[in-house]
Amino acid sequence: MFVKKIDSRIKVVLLIFTLLLLLIIIRVIYVQMIDYERLSDLASDLWSRNLPIEANRGRILDRNGVVLADNLTTTSLVLVPNQIKNKEEVTSKLAEILGVSYDDMKEHVFKETSIERVHPEGRRLSYEIADQIEALGYDGVYLVKEAKRYYPYGSLLAHVLGYVGIDNQGLSGLELQYDEYLTGEAGAIKYFSDAKGNKLALNDIYIQPQDGMDLQLTIDINIQQSLERELDNVVDMFNPDMALALVMDPNTGEILAMSSRPTFDPNNYSDYGSEVLNRNLPIWATYEPGSTQKIITTAAAIEEKVIELYDEHFYDSGSVQVDTARIKCWKAGGHGDQTFLQVLQNSCNPGFVLMGQRLGKEKLFSYLDLFGFGEKTGIDLNGEGSGIIFPLSKVGNIELATTAFGQGISVTPIQQVTAISAVLNGGNLYKPYVLKNILEPETGNVMLQNSAQLVRKTISEETSATMRYALESVVALGGGKATYIDGYRIGGKTGTAQKVENGAYLVNNYIMSFVGIVPSNNPEAVLYLAIDNPKNTAMLSSYTTTPIARRILLDIIEALDIEKQEGGIEKDWEWSDQVYYEVADVEGKTPEEAKKLLEHFALEYTGSGDYIISQSPEAGQRLPEGSTIKLLLGN
To answer: How many CA atoms within 13 Å lie on the side-chain side of 583?
Structure first.
Protein backbone atom coordinates (compact mmCIF):
# COMPACT_ATOMS: atom_id res chain seq x y z
CA MET A 1 0.00 0.00 0.00
CA PHE A 2 2.80 2.38 0.94
CA VAL A 3 4.68 1.52 -2.29
CA LYS A 4 1.60 2.31 -4.38
CA LYS A 5 1.33 5.79 -2.82
CA ILE A 6 4.98 6.56 -3.60
CA ASP A 7 4.50 5.35 -7.18
CA SER A 8 1.50 7.62 -7.73
CA ARG A 9 3.37 10.61 -6.35
CA ILE A 10 6.27 9.96 -8.72
CA LYS A 11 3.84 9.86 -11.62
CA VAL A 12 2.35 13.21 -10.58
CA VAL A 13 5.80 14.80 -10.29
CA LEU A 14 6.82 13.40 -13.69
CA LEU A 15 3.61 14.75 -15.22
CA ILE A 16 4.28 18.19 -13.76
CA PHE A 17 7.86 18.21 -15.02
CA THR A 18 6.66 17.03 -18.43
CA LEU A 19 4.11 19.83 -18.62
CA LEU A 20 6.70 22.39 -17.53
CA LEU A 21 9.13 21.09 -20.15
CA LEU A 22 6.42 21.25 -22.78
CA LEU A 23 5.60 24.84 -21.82
CA ILE A 24 9.29 25.76 -22.02
CA ILE A 25 9.57 24.20 -25.48
CA ILE A 26 6.43 26.03 -26.66
CA ARG A 27 7.77 29.30 -25.25
CA VAL A 28 11.13 28.79 -26.95
CA ILE A 29 9.39 28.08 -30.27
CA TYR A 30 7.20 31.17 -29.81
CA VAL A 31 10.18 33.39 -28.98
CA GLN A 32 12.37 32.03 -31.79
CA MET A 33 9.76 31.88 -34.53
CA ILE A 34 6.91 34.25 -33.70
CA ASP A 35 8.09 36.95 -31.30
CA TYR A 36 11.70 37.05 -32.48
CA GLU A 37 11.44 40.24 -34.50
CA ARG A 38 9.81 42.24 -31.69
CA LEU A 39 12.31 41.08 -29.08
CA SER A 40 15.19 41.65 -31.45
CA ASP A 41 14.01 45.20 -32.00
CA LEU A 42 13.73 45.76 -28.25
CA ALA A 43 17.23 44.40 -27.71
CA SER A 44 18.56 46.46 -30.59
CA ASP A 45 16.99 49.59 -29.11
CA LEU A 46 19.08 49.10 -25.96
CA TRP A 47 22.39 49.42 -27.82
CA SER A 48 21.61 50.96 -31.24
CA ARG A 49 20.91 54.63 -31.97
CA ASN A 50 19.53 56.36 -35.09
CA LEU A 51 20.60 59.74 -36.39
CA PRO A 52 17.62 60.81 -38.56
CA ILE A 53 18.05 61.74 -42.23
CA GLU A 54 15.04 63.60 -43.58
CA ALA A 55 13.63 62.64 -46.97
CA ASN A 56 13.09 65.21 -49.69
CA ARG A 57 9.54 66.35 -50.09
CA GLY A 58 8.07 65.62 -53.53
CA ARG A 59 8.42 68.42 -56.06
CA ILE A 60 5.50 70.28 -57.62
CA LEU A 61 5.65 70.83 -61.40
CA ASP A 62 3.54 72.68 -63.93
CA ARG A 63 1.97 70.82 -66.88
CA ASN A 64 5.17 71.32 -68.92
CA GLY A 65 7.54 70.02 -66.24
CA VAL A 66 8.66 73.40 -64.86
CA VAL A 67 9.49 73.07 -61.15
CA LEU A 68 7.26 75.30 -59.00
CA ALA A 69 8.16 73.85 -55.57
CA ASP A 70 11.58 72.29 -54.90
CA ASN A 71 13.90 71.42 -52.01
CA LEU A 72 17.16 72.87 -50.73
CA THR A 73 19.55 70.64 -48.79
CA THR A 74 20.40 72.10 -45.38
CA THR A 75 21.84 70.70 -42.16
CA SER A 76 20.51 70.50 -38.63
CA LEU A 77 22.17 69.95 -35.27
CA VAL A 78 21.58 66.71 -33.35
CA LEU A 79 23.15 65.85 -29.98
CA VAL A 80 23.79 62.55 -28.19
CA PRO A 81 24.18 63.89 -24.62
CA ASN A 82 25.78 60.74 -23.17
CA GLN A 83 28.64 60.99 -25.67
CA ILE A 84 29.46 64.61 -24.87
CA LYS A 85 32.50 64.69 -22.54
CA ASN A 86 32.94 68.35 -21.58
CA LYS A 87 29.34 69.49 -21.49
CA GLU A 88 30.04 73.01 -20.16
CA GLU A 89 32.53 73.74 -22.93
CA VAL A 90 30.24 72.27 -25.62
CA THR A 91 27.30 74.30 -24.30
CA SER A 92 29.29 77.52 -24.33
CA LYS A 93 30.70 77.03 -27.84
CA LEU A 94 27.40 75.98 -29.44
CA ALA A 95 25.54 78.87 -27.78
CA GLU A 96 28.12 81.30 -29.17
CA ILE A 97 27.95 79.94 -32.73
CA LEU A 98 24.15 79.72 -32.82
CA GLY A 99 23.65 83.10 -31.14
CA VAL A 100 21.52 81.80 -28.26
CA SER A 101 21.89 82.01 -24.50
CA TYR A 102 23.99 79.55 -22.47
CA ASP A 103 20.90 78.47 -20.49
CA ASP A 104 18.88 77.73 -23.64
CA MET A 105 21.65 75.55 -25.06
CA LYS A 106 22.24 73.88 -21.70
CA GLU A 107 18.71 72.47 -21.78
CA HIS A 108 19.67 70.53 -24.92
CA VAL A 109 23.20 69.45 -23.96
CA PHE A 110 22.31 68.24 -20.44
CA LYS A 111 19.00 66.64 -21.38
CA GLU A 112 18.63 63.02 -20.27
CA THR A 113 17.75 61.44 -23.58
CA SER A 114 19.44 59.19 -26.09
CA ILE A 115 19.20 61.68 -29.00
CA GLU A 116 18.30 65.38 -28.81
CA ARG A 117 17.34 67.41 -31.90
CA VAL A 118 18.23 71.06 -31.23
CA HIS A 119 14.98 72.78 -32.17
CA PRO A 120 14.46 75.45 -33.34
CA GLU A 121 17.94 76.96 -32.84
CA GLY A 122 19.75 74.20 -34.69
CA ARG A 123 17.38 73.74 -37.64
CA ARG A 124 18.10 74.67 -41.26
CA LEU A 125 21.62 75.93 -40.55
CA SER A 126 23.57 77.96 -43.07
CA TYR A 127 26.71 76.41 -44.56
CA GLU A 128 28.87 78.89 -42.64
CA ILE A 129 27.42 77.96 -39.23
CA ALA A 130 27.47 74.23 -40.05
CA ASP A 131 31.18 74.46 -40.95
CA GLN A 132 31.95 76.18 -37.62
CA ILE A 133 30.18 73.43 -35.67
CA GLU A 134 31.85 70.66 -37.65
CA ALA A 135 35.27 72.21 -37.06
CA LEU A 136 34.83 71.81 -33.27
CA GLY A 137 35.05 68.02 -33.62
CA TYR A 138 33.16 67.32 -30.40
CA ASP A 139 31.97 63.80 -29.59
CA GLY A 140 28.19 63.52 -29.47
CA VAL A 141 27.66 66.56 -31.73
CA TYR A 142 26.29 65.61 -35.15
CA LEU A 143 25.16 67.46 -38.25
CA VAL A 144 22.48 65.67 -40.27
CA LYS A 145 20.96 66.40 -43.67
CA GLU A 146 17.62 68.16 -43.72
CA ALA A 147 15.52 69.35 -46.67
CA LYS A 148 14.04 72.84 -46.78
CA ARG A 149 11.11 73.69 -49.06
CA TYR A 150 11.96 76.24 -51.72
CA TYR A 151 9.66 78.04 -54.16
CA PRO A 152 11.86 79.29 -57.04
CA TYR A 153 9.21 81.70 -58.38
CA GLY A 154 8.42 83.33 -55.04
CA SER A 155 4.79 84.40 -54.80
CA LEU A 156 3.77 82.88 -58.16
CA LEU A 157 0.75 80.57 -57.61
CA ALA A 158 1.23 81.03 -53.85
CA HIS A 159 -2.32 80.30 -52.68
CA VAL A 160 -2.60 77.23 -54.88
CA LEU A 161 0.77 75.77 -53.90
CA GLY A 162 0.40 76.65 -50.21
CA TYR A 163 3.33 76.40 -47.82
CA VAL A 164 4.97 73.98 -45.35
CA GLY A 165 5.97 74.25 -41.70
CA ILE A 166 9.46 73.90 -40.24
CA ASP A 167 9.05 70.10 -40.08
CA ASN A 168 8.13 70.01 -43.80
CA GLN A 169 4.47 69.28 -43.14
CA GLY A 170 1.93 70.82 -45.53
CA LEU A 171 -0.10 73.62 -43.95
CA SER A 172 -2.20 74.96 -46.84
CA GLY A 173 -2.95 74.64 -50.55
CA LEU A 174 -1.71 71.63 -52.49
CA GLU A 175 1.01 71.13 -49.89
CA LEU A 176 -1.76 70.27 -47.41
CA GLN A 177 -4.21 68.66 -49.84
CA TYR A 178 -1.68 66.10 -51.11
CA ASP A 179 0.63 65.98 -48.07
CA GLU A 180 0.46 62.17 -47.83
CA TYR A 181 1.91 61.84 -51.35
CA LEU A 182 4.48 64.62 -51.01
CA THR A 183 5.87 63.38 -47.69
CA GLY A 184 8.64 60.80 -48.04
CA GLU A 185 10.01 58.24 -45.57
CA ALA A 186 12.92 59.38 -43.39
CA GLY A 187 16.20 57.47 -43.38
CA ALA A 188 18.88 57.24 -40.68
CA ILE A 189 22.50 56.54 -39.81
CA LYS A 190 22.37 53.69 -37.27
CA TYR A 191 25.29 53.35 -34.85
CA PHE A 192 25.82 51.19 -31.75
CA SER A 193 26.57 52.25 -28.17
CA ASP A 194 27.04 50.70 -24.76
CA ALA A 195 24.70 51.12 -21.80
CA LYS A 196 26.26 54.53 -21.01
CA GLY A 197 25.72 55.77 -24.56
CA ASN A 198 29.37 55.56 -25.59
CA LYS A 199 29.77 54.76 -29.26
CA LEU A 200 31.06 51.27 -29.99
CA ALA A 201 33.68 50.52 -32.62
CA LEU A 202 31.22 48.89 -34.99
CA ASN A 203 30.35 49.84 -38.58
CA ASP A 204 27.51 52.35 -38.92
CA ILE A 205 24.47 51.34 -40.96
CA TYR A 206 23.05 53.79 -43.52
CA ILE A 207 19.29 53.60 -44.12
CA GLN A 208 18.50 55.63 -47.23
CA PRO A 209 15.50 58.00 -47.07
CA GLN A 210 12.76 57.65 -49.68
CA ASP A 211 11.68 60.91 -51.31
CA GLY A 212 8.02 61.86 -51.65
CA MET A 213 6.03 61.64 -54.88
CA ASP A 214 6.11 64.53 -57.37
CA LEU A 215 2.90 66.39 -58.30
CA GLN A 216 2.33 67.56 -61.87
CA LEU A 217 -0.33 70.23 -62.15
CA THR A 218 -2.72 71.39 -64.85
CA ILE A 219 -1.18 74.87 -64.47
CA ASP A 220 0.61 76.44 -67.44
CA ILE A 221 3.40 78.65 -66.09
CA ASN A 222 3.27 80.97 -69.12
CA ILE A 223 -0.40 81.79 -68.52
CA GLN A 224 0.22 81.93 -64.77
CA GLN A 225 3.00 84.50 -65.21
CA SER A 226 0.66 86.58 -67.36
CA LEU A 227 -1.96 86.61 -64.58
CA GLU A 228 0.64 87.52 -61.96
CA ARG A 229 2.00 90.39 -64.07
CA GLU A 230 -1.40 91.85 -64.86
CA LEU A 231 -2.66 91.58 -61.28
CA ASP A 232 0.45 93.47 -60.16
CA ASN A 233 -0.44 96.12 -62.75
CA VAL A 234 -4.01 96.24 -61.37
CA VAL A 235 -2.67 96.88 -57.87
CA ASP A 236 -0.34 99.61 -59.12
CA MET A 237 -3.02 101.34 -61.22
CA PHE A 238 -6.18 100.97 -59.16
CA ASN A 239 -5.18 100.13 -55.56
CA PRO A 240 -8.14 97.70 -55.22
CA ASP A 241 -9.36 96.03 -52.04
CA MET A 242 -8.63 92.75 -53.82
CA ALA A 243 -8.16 91.38 -57.34
CA LEU A 244 -8.25 87.88 -58.78
CA ALA A 245 -8.04 85.97 -62.02
CA LEU A 246 -8.28 82.36 -63.16
CA VAL A 247 -8.18 80.48 -66.44
CA MET A 248 -9.86 77.12 -67.11
CA ASP A 249 -9.94 74.67 -69.99
CA PRO A 250 -13.73 74.50 -70.51
CA ASN A 251 -13.52 71.07 -72.14
CA THR A 252 -11.96 69.28 -69.15
CA GLY A 253 -12.19 71.45 -66.02
CA GLU A 254 -8.39 71.79 -65.86
CA ILE A 255 -7.23 74.99 -64.15
CA LEU A 256 -4.58 76.60 -66.36
CA ALA A 257 -3.83 79.53 -64.04
CA MET A 258 -5.11 81.02 -60.77
CA SER A 259 -3.98 83.99 -58.73
CA SER A 260 -5.18 86.80 -56.46
CA ARG A 261 -4.10 89.90 -54.61
CA PRO A 262 -3.14 90.30 -51.82
CA THR A 263 -0.66 87.45 -52.09
CA PHE A 264 2.37 86.15 -50.17
CA ASP A 265 5.79 84.53 -50.65
CA PRO A 266 5.62 80.94 -49.34
CA ASN A 267 9.40 81.01 -48.77
CA ASN A 268 8.68 83.54 -45.99
CA TYR A 269 5.10 82.70 -45.03
CA SER A 270 5.63 83.68 -41.38
CA ASP A 271 5.80 87.34 -42.47
CA TYR A 272 2.06 87.33 -43.35
CA GLY A 273 -1.19 87.16 -41.42
CA SER A 274 -3.85 84.46 -41.69
CA GLU A 275 -6.20 86.80 -43.60
CA VAL A 276 -3.70 86.67 -46.50
CA LEU A 277 -2.35 83.13 -46.11
CA ASN A 278 -5.67 81.31 -45.85
CA ARG A 279 -7.78 83.12 -48.44
CA ASN A 280 -7.44 81.73 -51.94
CA LEU A 281 -9.85 84.29 -53.37
CA PRO A 282 -10.78 82.55 -56.67
CA ILE A 283 -12.30 79.67 -54.67
CA TRP A 284 -13.03 81.39 -51.34
CA ALA A 285 -14.46 84.85 -52.12
CA THR A 286 -18.23 85.18 -52.50
CA TYR A 287 -19.97 88.25 -53.94
CA GLU A 288 -22.75 89.32 -56.26
CA PRO A 289 -21.65 88.41 -59.79
CA GLY A 290 -23.33 91.29 -61.61
CA SER A 291 -23.70 91.19 -65.37
CA THR A 292 -21.48 88.16 -65.99
CA GLN A 293 -24.39 86.17 -64.51
CA LYS A 294 -26.50 87.31 -67.48
CA ILE A 295 -24.75 84.57 -69.48
CA ILE A 296 -26.57 81.96 -67.39
CA THR A 297 -29.94 83.76 -67.63
CA THR A 298 -29.63 84.10 -71.40
CA ALA A 299 -28.67 80.43 -71.82
CA ALA A 300 -31.66 79.35 -69.71
CA ALA A 301 -34.05 81.61 -71.66
CA ILE A 302 -32.82 80.24 -75.00
CA GLU A 303 -32.95 76.63 -73.79
CA GLU A 304 -36.51 77.08 -72.52
CA LYS A 305 -37.48 78.95 -75.71
CA VAL A 306 -38.98 81.89 -73.83
CA ILE A 307 -37.13 84.36 -76.09
CA GLU A 308 -36.09 84.45 -79.74
CA LEU A 309 -32.58 85.88 -79.63
CA TYR A 310 -32.27 87.32 -83.13
CA ASP A 311 -35.71 88.40 -84.30
CA GLU A 312 -37.73 89.20 -81.17
CA HIS A 313 -37.56 92.83 -80.05
CA PHE A 314 -37.64 94.49 -76.64
CA TYR A 315 -38.13 98.19 -76.02
CA ASP A 316 -36.03 99.66 -73.22
CA SER A 317 -37.38 102.95 -71.89
CA GLY A 318 -34.63 103.19 -69.27
CA SER A 319 -36.35 101.44 -66.36
CA VAL A 320 -38.98 98.90 -65.38
CA GLN A 321 -41.31 98.77 -62.36
CA VAL A 322 -41.36 95.53 -60.35
CA ASP A 323 -43.76 95.72 -57.39
CA THR A 324 -42.38 98.54 -55.23
CA ALA A 325 -38.98 98.69 -56.93
CA ARG A 326 -38.00 100.63 -60.03
CA ILE A 327 -35.12 98.85 -61.76
CA LYS A 328 -33.06 101.12 -64.00
CA CYS A 329 -30.91 100.49 -67.03
CA TRP A 330 -27.31 101.72 -66.73
CA LYS A 331 -27.95 103.95 -69.76
CA ALA A 332 -30.04 107.02 -68.95
CA GLY A 333 -33.15 107.03 -71.13
CA GLY A 334 -32.62 103.38 -72.07
CA HIS A 335 -31.53 101.68 -75.28
CA GLY A 336 -34.87 101.94 -77.05
CA ASP A 337 -35.83 99.21 -79.52
CA GLN A 338 -33.42 96.27 -79.59
CA THR A 339 -33.33 92.52 -80.24
CA PHE A 340 -32.63 90.21 -77.33
CA LEU A 341 -29.13 89.67 -78.76
CA GLN A 342 -28.65 93.42 -78.38
CA VAL A 343 -30.08 93.19 -74.86
CA LEU A 344 -27.10 90.92 -74.07
CA GLN A 345 -24.65 93.09 -76.01
CA ASN A 346 -25.86 96.21 -74.20
CA SER A 347 -26.18 94.45 -70.82
CA CYS A 348 -29.64 95.95 -70.47
CA ASN A 349 -31.12 95.17 -67.03
CA PRO A 350 -34.81 95.73 -67.93
CA GLY A 351 -34.46 93.19 -70.75
CA PHE A 352 -33.11 90.60 -68.29
CA VAL A 353 -35.94 91.34 -65.87
CA LEU A 354 -38.32 90.29 -68.66
CA MET A 355 -36.29 87.10 -69.29
CA GLY A 356 -36.53 86.24 -65.60
CA GLN A 357 -40.27 86.86 -65.55
CA ARG A 358 -40.80 84.65 -68.57
CA LEU A 359 -38.73 81.85 -67.06
CA GLY A 360 -40.41 82.13 -63.65
CA LYS A 361 -38.68 81.59 -60.35
CA GLU A 362 -38.91 77.78 -60.34
CA LYS A 363 -37.32 77.46 -63.76
CA LEU A 364 -34.65 80.15 -63.31
CA PHE A 365 -33.54 78.79 -59.93
CA SER A 366 -33.56 75.23 -61.26
CA TYR A 367 -30.93 76.38 -63.77
CA LEU A 368 -28.89 77.94 -60.97
CA ASP A 369 -28.92 74.52 -59.30
CA LEU A 370 -28.16 72.78 -62.58
CA PHE A 371 -25.07 74.94 -63.16
CA GLY A 372 -23.80 74.29 -59.63
CA PHE A 373 -24.45 77.59 -57.84
CA GLY A 374 -25.01 77.35 -54.11
CA GLU A 375 -22.72 74.32 -53.71
CA LYS A 376 -18.98 73.69 -53.80
CA THR A 377 -17.51 72.65 -57.12
CA GLY A 378 -15.30 70.05 -55.42
CA ILE A 379 -12.01 71.47 -56.73
CA ASP A 380 -9.01 69.75 -55.11
CA LEU A 381 -8.03 72.76 -53.00
CA ASN A 382 -8.92 73.47 -49.38
CA GLY A 383 -10.98 76.49 -48.33
CA GLU A 384 -13.62 76.55 -51.08
CA GLY A 385 -16.76 78.62 -50.51
CA SER A 386 -20.35 77.69 -51.43
CA GLY A 387 -21.98 81.01 -52.27
CA ILE A 388 -25.52 81.99 -51.26
CA ILE A 389 -28.69 81.44 -53.27
CA PHE A 390 -32.19 82.54 -52.18
CA PRO A 391 -34.38 79.72 -50.83
CA LEU A 392 -37.18 79.39 -53.37
CA SER A 393 -39.76 80.08 -50.65
CA LYS A 394 -38.28 83.56 -50.14
CA VAL A 395 -38.12 84.51 -53.82
CA GLY A 396 -40.63 87.18 -54.74
CA ASN A 397 -40.99 89.23 -57.90
CA ILE A 398 -38.18 91.60 -56.95
CA GLU A 399 -35.78 88.78 -56.03
CA LEU A 400 -36.60 87.04 -59.30
CA ALA A 401 -35.90 90.24 -61.26
CA THR A 402 -32.57 91.02 -59.55
CA THR A 403 -31.34 87.42 -59.77
CA ALA A 404 -31.91 87.50 -63.53
CA PHE A 405 -29.30 90.25 -63.95
CA GLY A 406 -26.88 89.06 -61.25
CA GLN A 407 -27.81 90.85 -58.03
CA GLY A 408 -29.12 89.44 -54.76
CA ILE A 409 -27.24 86.14 -55.06
CA SER A 410 -23.66 85.41 -54.04
CA VAL A 411 -21.30 83.17 -56.01
CA THR A 412 -17.61 82.25 -56.05
CA PRO A 413 -15.34 82.90 -59.06
CA ILE A 414 -14.68 79.18 -59.51
CA GLN A 415 -18.46 78.55 -59.64
CA GLN A 416 -18.86 81.19 -62.33
CA VAL A 417 -16.03 79.89 -64.50
CA THR A 418 -17.22 76.29 -64.14
CA ALA A 419 -20.81 77.23 -65.04
CA ILE A 420 -19.87 79.47 -67.97
CA SER A 421 -17.56 76.75 -69.28
CA ALA A 422 -20.59 74.44 -69.36
CA VAL A 423 -22.52 77.07 -71.33
CA LEU A 424 -19.73 77.16 -73.92
CA ASN A 425 -18.58 73.56 -74.28
CA GLY A 426 -21.83 72.01 -75.41
CA GLY A 427 -23.56 71.92 -72.01
CA ASN A 428 -21.19 69.70 -69.99
CA LEU A 429 -20.56 70.73 -66.38
CA TYR A 430 -17.11 69.47 -65.36
CA LYS A 431 -15.53 69.27 -61.93
CA PRO A 432 -12.53 71.66 -61.84
CA TYR A 433 -9.16 70.28 -60.77
CA VAL A 434 -5.53 71.35 -60.36
CA LEU A 435 -3.64 68.05 -59.97
CA LYS A 436 -2.92 66.34 -63.28
CA ASN A 437 -0.54 63.49 -62.35
CA ILE A 438 1.27 62.00 -59.36
CA LEU A 439 4.75 60.93 -60.50
CA GLU A 440 7.36 58.50 -59.14
CA PRO A 441 10.30 60.84 -58.36
CA GLU A 442 13.18 58.79 -59.78
CA THR A 443 11.64 57.51 -63.01
CA GLY A 444 8.90 60.09 -63.62
CA ASN A 445 6.39 57.29 -64.18
CA VAL A 446 2.74 58.24 -63.67
CA MET A 447 1.45 56.58 -60.49
CA LEU A 448 -1.95 58.30 -60.42
CA GLN A 449 -3.68 60.33 -63.12
CA ASN A 450 -6.57 62.77 -62.95
CA SER A 451 -8.97 63.13 -65.84
CA ALA A 452 -12.09 65.11 -66.71
CA GLN A 453 -15.07 64.31 -64.46
CA LEU A 454 -18.48 65.10 -65.93
CA VAL A 455 -20.89 66.24 -63.22
CA ARG A 456 -24.01 66.52 -65.39
CA LYS A 457 -25.48 67.85 -68.61
CA THR A 458 -26.93 71.36 -68.45
CA ILE A 459 -28.05 72.71 -71.85
CA SER A 460 -28.19 71.44 -75.42
CA GLU A 461 -25.37 71.73 -77.96
CA GLU A 462 -27.63 74.00 -80.04
CA THR A 463 -28.09 76.48 -77.18
CA SER A 464 -24.36 76.31 -76.43
CA ALA A 465 -23.49 77.15 -80.05
CA THR A 466 -25.90 80.10 -79.96
CA MET A 467 -24.31 81.38 -76.77
CA ARG A 468 -20.81 81.14 -78.25
CA TYR A 469 -21.92 83.36 -81.13
CA ALA A 470 -23.80 85.72 -78.81
CA LEU A 471 -20.75 86.26 -76.56
CA GLU A 472 -18.55 86.85 -79.60
CA SER A 473 -21.00 89.57 -80.66
CA VAL A 474 -20.67 91.19 -77.20
CA VAL A 475 -16.93 91.66 -77.83
CA ALA A 476 -17.28 92.76 -81.46
CA LEU A 477 -20.39 94.94 -81.12
CA GLY A 478 -21.15 95.42 -77.41
CA GLY A 479 -19.53 96.29 -74.09
CA GLY A 480 -16.47 94.05 -74.51
CA LYS A 481 -14.97 95.82 -77.54
CA ALA A 482 -11.68 96.60 -75.80
CA THR A 483 -10.86 92.87 -75.74
CA TYR A 484 -11.30 92.45 -79.50
CA ILE A 485 -8.20 90.88 -81.11
CA ASP A 486 -8.11 91.11 -84.88
CA GLY A 487 -7.85 87.71 -86.55
CA TYR A 488 -9.05 85.83 -83.47
CA ARG A 489 -12.59 85.07 -82.42
CA ILE A 490 -12.94 86.39 -78.86
CA GLY A 491 -16.09 86.12 -76.77
CA GLY A 492 -16.81 87.74 -73.44
CA LYS A 493 -19.04 89.61 -71.03
CA THR A 494 -18.37 92.43 -68.61
CA GLY A 495 -19.84 92.73 -65.12
CA THR A 496 -20.18 95.64 -62.69
CA ALA A 497 -21.69 94.64 -59.34
CA GLN A 498 -22.41 97.10 -56.55
CA LYS A 499 -21.09 95.80 -53.23
CA VAL A 500 -23.30 95.15 -50.22
CA GLU A 501 -22.46 95.77 -46.57
CA ASN A 502 -24.85 95.11 -43.69
CA GLY A 503 -27.72 94.66 -46.13
CA ALA A 504 -27.20 98.00 -47.93
CA TYR A 505 -25.51 98.77 -51.25
CA LEU A 506 -22.35 100.87 -50.93
CA VAL A 507 -21.91 104.09 -52.87
CA ASN A 508 -19.23 104.08 -55.60
CA ASN A 509 -17.94 100.70 -54.44
CA TYR A 510 -18.11 97.99 -57.10
CA ILE A 511 -16.65 94.66 -58.09
CA MET A 512 -15.79 94.87 -61.78
CA SER A 513 -15.36 91.65 -63.67
CA PHE A 514 -14.90 90.19 -67.13
CA VAL A 515 -15.32 86.72 -68.60
CA GLY A 516 -13.30 86.09 -71.76
CA ILE A 517 -13.40 83.12 -74.16
CA VAL A 518 -10.76 82.21 -76.75
CA PRO A 519 -11.51 81.20 -79.44
CA SER A 520 -15.25 81.72 -79.20
CA ASN A 521 -16.12 79.26 -81.97
CA ASN A 522 -14.18 76.40 -80.34
CA PRO A 523 -13.20 77.49 -76.80
CA GLU A 524 -9.85 76.37 -75.44
CA ALA A 525 -9.70 78.73 -72.45
CA VAL A 526 -12.10 80.72 -70.28
CA LEU A 527 -10.65 83.71 -68.42
CA TYR A 528 -12.28 85.33 -65.40
CA LEU A 529 -10.94 88.61 -64.01
CA ALA A 530 -12.39 90.55 -61.06
CA ILE A 531 -11.27 93.81 -59.40
CA ASP A 532 -12.79 94.78 -56.06
CA ASN A 533 -13.31 98.51 -55.51
CA PRO A 534 -10.78 99.95 -57.98
CA LYS A 535 -9.85 103.55 -57.27
CA ASN A 536 -9.43 106.47 -59.70
CA THR A 537 -11.22 104.87 -62.64
CA ALA A 538 -14.56 104.96 -64.43
CA MET A 539 -17.20 102.90 -62.62
CA LEU A 540 -17.72 100.58 -65.61
CA SER A 541 -16.02 97.26 -66.19
CA SER A 542 -15.92 97.89 -69.94
CA TYR A 543 -13.28 100.58 -69.25
CA THR A 544 -11.45 98.95 -66.35
CA THR A 545 -11.13 95.20 -66.83
CA THR A 546 -11.22 94.78 -70.62
CA PRO A 547 -7.79 96.24 -71.53
CA ILE A 548 -6.19 94.04 -68.87
CA ALA A 549 -8.13 90.99 -70.03
CA ARG A 550 -7.03 91.59 -73.62
CA ARG A 551 -3.35 91.40 -72.65
CA ILE A 552 -3.96 88.13 -70.80
CA LEU A 553 -5.91 86.72 -73.74
CA LEU A 554 -2.99 87.52 -76.06
CA ASP A 555 -0.69 85.57 -73.73
CA ILE A 556 -3.15 82.66 -73.64
CA ILE A 557 -3.20 82.61 -77.46
CA GLU A 558 0.60 82.39 -77.50
CA ALA A 559 0.87 79.82 -74.69
CA LEU A 560 -1.73 77.49 -76.21
CA ASP A 561 -0.53 78.15 -79.77
CA ILE A 562 -4.04 79.06 -80.92
CA GLU A 563 -4.22 79.70 -84.65
CA LYS A 564 -6.08 82.59 -86.26
CA GLN A 565 -9.67 81.92 -87.25
CA GLU A 566 -11.77 83.03 -90.16
CA GLY A 567 -15.45 83.93 -90.19
CA GLY A 568 -15.55 86.00 -87.03
CA ILE A 569 -17.81 88.98 -86.43
CA GLU A 570 -16.20 92.20 -87.66
CA LYS A 571 -15.79 94.76 -84.91
CA ASP A 572 -17.96 97.85 -84.85
CA TRP A 573 -14.96 100.16 -85.19
CA GLU A 574 -14.83 103.40 -83.24
CA TRP A 575 -12.79 106.50 -84.06
CA SER A 576 -10.20 105.68 -81.38
CA ASP A 577 -9.68 102.06 -82.48
CA GLN A 578 -6.73 100.77 -84.40
CA VAL A 579 -8.37 99.51 -87.62
CA TYR A 580 -7.08 96.41 -89.41
CA TYR A 581 -7.21 95.73 -93.16
CA GLU A 582 -6.40 92.70 -95.26
CA VAL A 583 -3.30 92.89 -97.45
CA ALA A 584 -4.27 92.54 -101.11
CA ASP A 585 -2.35 90.46 -103.65
CA VAL A 586 -0.51 92.94 -105.88
CA GLU A 587 2.10 90.68 -107.49
CA GLY A 588 2.03 91.25 -111.25
CA LYS A 589 0.36 94.65 -110.79
CA THR A 590 1.78 98.03 -111.72
CA PRO A 591 2.80 100.44 -108.94
CA GLU A 592 -0.28 102.57 -109.71
CA GLU A 593 -2.59 99.54 -109.35
CA ALA A 594 -0.83 98.45 -106.16
CA LYS A 595 -1.26 101.93 -104.67
CA LYS A 596 -5.04 101.74 -105.10
CA LEU A 597 -5.31 98.20 -103.73
CA LEU A 598 -3.10 99.01 -100.73
CA GLU A 599 -4.47 102.47 -100.00
CA HIS A 600 -4.62 101.86 -96.23
CA PHE A 601 -0.91 101.03 -95.96
CA ALA A 602 2.43 102.78 -96.39
CA LEU A 603 4.33 101.43 -99.41
CA GLU A 604 8.10 100.97 -99.65
CA TYR A 605 9.61 100.14 -103.09
CA THR A 606 12.92 98.47 -103.91
CA GLY A 607 14.42 97.50 -107.28
CA SER A 608 13.37 98.85 -110.65
CA GLY A 609 10.84 97.84 -113.26
CA ASP A 610 7.23 98.30 -114.30
CA TYR A 611 5.63 95.54 -112.20
CA ILE A 612 5.46 94.22 -108.65
CA ILE A 613 7.30 90.86 -108.59
CA SER A 614 7.25 90.27 -104.81
CA GLN A 615 5.57 91.68 -101.70
CA SER A 616 6.09 91.44 -97.97
CA PRO A 617 4.02 90.69 -95.94
CA GLU A 618 2.21 88.21 -98.17
CA ALA A 619 -1.35 88.71 -99.35
CA GLY A 620 -4.19 87.67 -97.04
CA GLN A 621 -2.68 88.90 -93.79
CA ARG A 622 -4.51 91.52 -91.70
CA LEU A 623 -2.41 94.44 -90.54
CA PRO A 624 -3.11 97.71 -88.70
CA GLU A 625 -3.85 100.72 -90.88
CA GLY A 626 -0.62 102.52 -91.81
CA SER A 627 1.59 99.40 -91.67
CA THR A 628 4.45 99.29 -94.18
CA ILE A 629 4.23 96.94 -97.18
CA LYS A 630 7.52 96.29 -98.98
CA LEU A 631 7.23 95.86 -102.76
CA LEU A 632 9.95 94.58 -105.09
CA LEU A 633 9.84 96.02 -108.64
CA GLY A 634 10.97 94.18 -111.76
CA ASN A 635 10.05 93.21 -115.29
So the answer is: 22
